[in-house]
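re: ur question from yesterday

yeah so i grabbed the chain u mentioned. its 83 aa long if i counted rite. heres the sequnce exactly as i have it in my notes:
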Amino acid sequence: MTASEASRNFSSVLDRAERGETIVVTRAGRRVALIVPAPRANGRALLDVFHRWRGNAGIDEKFAADVAAAKEAAGEDADPWHE
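ran it thru and got these structure tokens back, copy pasting raw so excuse formatting
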């Protein structure tokens, strides 16, 4: 579908995507975009991940050391919100 067609029929394009269709949008014969159906999720999968990680999500020691070193190198004045 050309960009002009997509623009003129955008509501229809959204209806088609909602029904599961992927629409390729072209400009001057070149593919420039895809309009795809949005993932349907109710957050259950994310909640399951949070439950699995509860109590186990520690900070990597090297990362924590790198953050501490960066904060020390920047000094207190580097924080624009520091009072």
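noticed a couple things. The chain has two domains: 3-35, 44-74. also The mean pLDDT is 85.
anyway ttyl
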